[in-house]
Amino acid sequence: VQLQASGGGVVQSGGSLRLACAASGSIFSINDMGWYRQAPGKQRELVASITGGGSTLYADSVKGRFTISRDNAANTVYLQMNSLKPEDTAVYYCNIVPIRQQLWGQGTLVTVSS
Fold it and tell me: 106 Cβ partners below 8 Å, 6+ apart?
């Protein structure tokens, strides 16, 4: 089982994108969920997480611009990204928190042009 992220694309600086990640109910219902990203030449990092109860945490670099949410009925987690910057360019992935290696999918590429 892998978690597949979708919704990436090319956007100009200052633009917005909404990413989505659907999971099976057995994974989604019992775990905190997170959005991670890996920029070229950099390590993968956690950018936002959400508990089953809806509590959220954000990396300082995205705080105030990104919003993570989850639809428990649809077993889906979202990442609304506003005011995008070129440094947000990366492949974005979802996984549980803490990660489970076998759940990594291919991710979705977000490219922000200046």
Answer: 4, 5
